[in-house]
Amino acid sequence: MDILLIAGLWLDGSAWDDVVPELTALGHRPVPLTLPGQGDGTASATLDDQLAAVLAAVDAAPGKPLVVGHSAASSLAWLAADARPKKVAKVAMIGGFPAADGRAYADHFAIEDGAMPFPGWGPFEGADSADLDQETRHRLASAAIPVPEGVARGVMRLTDERRFDVPIVVVCPEFTPAQAKEWIAAGESPDLARATHLEYVDLDSGHWPMATRPRELARVLAEAASS
């Protein structure tokens, strides 16, 4: 199966470099995406531009792909399911929940000169970054690409209720499945609360398992693709 890999904020397709060979060895075709404004040199990209790139990859897949969204890109993966509910086989969300219709995509940190730069490790101290050694922190921070304002402040537009029938796997790295269920029940993700097919997978890692647990993450994604 084609597995489309969408990294979260500040990351390009190279974030999946350690996951790709593992997925290939497990018999799948991983397709890491470098999004407009996050690695292609387009500073003025919008959320619509990023969604168009994801949909182009969905449409190019020979069958129905698994669409994987990491962190904030869980919202982008969900937008793809909304736009292609009959073409997306399943969505996997790693360490993130989709933003609700009408909400900003990822307006989480300060905008400077038209983009949202990586804010440093301060906001991520604790469970998010507990498994990152100094070398990995430096590598991730050095490669971080400021997210264009048109992406970060882009508005979620969800229009097709058939998206709720697309199966979802919530991969729980820095939090547990029990916590995820509690947050969803409390209303933190209205769309996940309405999903028809929702499962949870625990993954013992921080927020960036593609960097710290690539083999384990690949196994989780391969199992999601195969089930």
TrEMBL record:
InterPro entries: AB_hydrolase_1 (IPR000073), AB_hydrolase_fold (IPR029058). Signal peptide: none annotated. GO terms for molecular function: catalytic activity. Pfam families: Abhydrolase_6. It comes from the Bacteria. Residues 3-219 form the AB hydrolase-1 domain. This is Esterase. It comes from Streptomyces dysideae. The lineage of its organism: Bacteria, Bacillati, Actinomycetota, Actinomycetes, Kitasatosporales.
